[in-house]
Amino acid sequence: KARTEIGGNAEAAWAALRDEAAACTRCPLYAPATQTVFGEGPVDADLVFVGEQPGDQEDLSGTPFVGPAGQVFDRALAEAGIDRDRVYVTNAVKHFKFEQRGKRRIHSKPGAGEIEACRWWIDQELMLVKPRVTVALGATAARSLFGRVVTIGKERGRAQTLPGGGEAWITVHPSFLLRLPDEDAKRMEYARFVEDLRMVRERMD
Ligand code: URA
């Protein structure tokens, strides 16, 4: 995509959108969370990754994928030959949903209503960035992007078309890899994840 096609307008529109999202009250998740974690990356990126929702560290820092899942994501991207600085990374839900247990905040899965309420933001982000390819990391992202329940095992590894047009790929969420109890399974699933990312990388050539 030529930079001139976008100019400064998309950047300004994106910054305005991010500022607006900082005050979002579309669903109740904003109240206990520290802040909105908006997408990050170049507005003219060809590739967008969509995660589930910020985790504890993302909630505190205000940046997507900087915690443990983000570290797995960064490593897998690098192994697949994708430069994180050149991709736009965001989440289906922009506030951390958690349960307080003593001092710890334990991740809770966002529900259909929260995904639906937050879809407005991701639609705007995708309209501004206009990526060539969008990647759903996990079922929540896929549900947000496709507007239906998605079975990752059945739908990963091939190009899909988003309801509004545009190519999308579906793969696992990096935190799924962290949760696998067995080291062999972890290694195997990680390799499959990198392989999915490589296929995406090849679409960008
Ligand atoms: N998990 C996500 O889905 N997104 C983040 O930003 C961090 C962890």
From TrEMBL:
Domain Uracil-DNA glycosylase-like residue range list: 38-198
Annotated family: Belongs to the uracil-DNA glycosylase (UDG) superfamily. Type 4 (UDGa) family.
Protein name: Type-4 uracil-DNA glycosylase
Native source organism of the sequence: Sphingomonas immobilis
High-level lineage: Bacteria, Pseudomonadati, Pseudomonadota, Alphaproteobacteria, Sphingomonadales
Segment of the intact protein contained: 258 to 462 of 464
